[in-house]
């Protein structure tokens, strides 16, 4: 039962027409292999050599969108927006790796990476689906980081007379969003990117902050979506923030782990997987 659920998720995520055998689902460019209750997706080796423009961060990727005229305008037609995005070709972008995502095996001395992905809807992504379908659909996404810009300070006071210095902020957050995955009510999916790292302990100590997961992808309509949110200041959290979240929609060719500073590759191939609880 779990396998059939995972295969259905894989079919949705990677556009497969359906399972070809009891143990594997395939499509041009990727196949999946079940390991216990987790489905690992292996990409076509040709994806490793796909030509793509490289961006070291979500901020750089957003700069490319602005070069093409910016995110879609409120009254911009489908045709006009697609025209602008026509030259937005394949790209590679570096995603965030938190300290907790890197594990050390005391017995073997090896390092591995295990990064969880989240449903983009939880970060503000709008699916365009009706409420019921949206609840039963997930959009796996990878964190591409954030940038925080200070916009000054002022002194604020709450209803009890307590005062605090409030910092005004503008926050830009970036996410790489993948194809939607339908799920039946009650099912819980966990999405992750994992791989073994070819790195010494000394280099890990020195280069930990420069490790990134790099995705080579094809942009797909609607290309980029923007969601705006606000954070009101409190005494315990004295920040007044305007938060813009940018969601770049894509299909994956290849995933690897690199040093964003030196370019050294720590994992030639990282794997994406779906697990059900």
Task: Give a structural overview.
Strand 14 (239-259) and strand 15 form a beta hairpin. The protein contains 5 helices and 16 strands. By secondary structure, the chain is an alpha+beta fold. The longest helix has 13 residues, at 2-14. The chain has one domain (51-276). Residues 15-28 have low confidence and may be disordered. The strands form 2 sheets. Strands 1, 2, 3, 4, 5, 6, 7, 9, 10, 12, 13, 14, 15 and 16 form a 14-stranded mixed beta sheet that branches. Strands 8-11 form a two-stranded antiparallel ribbon. 28% of the residues are buried. It has helices at residues 2-14, 58-67, 78-85, 131-135, 201-207; strands spanning 26-27, 30-35, 38-43, 53-55, 91-95, 102-104, 111-119, 137-138, 140-157, 163-177, 181-182, 189-197, 211-231, 239-259, 265-267, 271-276. This is Lipoprotein.
Write the layout of secondary structure elements.
Blueprint: H1 2-14, E1 26-27, E2 30-35, E3 38-43, E4 53-55, H2 58-67, H3 78-85, E5 91-95, E6 102-104, E7 111-119, H4 131-135, E8 137-138, E9 140-157, E10 163-177, E11 181-182, E12 189-197, H5 201-207, E13 211-231, E14 239-259, E15 265-267, E16 271-276
Parallel strand pairs: 4-5, 10-14
Antiparallel strand pairs: 1-2, 2-3, 3-16, 5-13, 6-7, 7-9, 7-12, 8-11, 9-10, 12-16, 13-14, 14-15
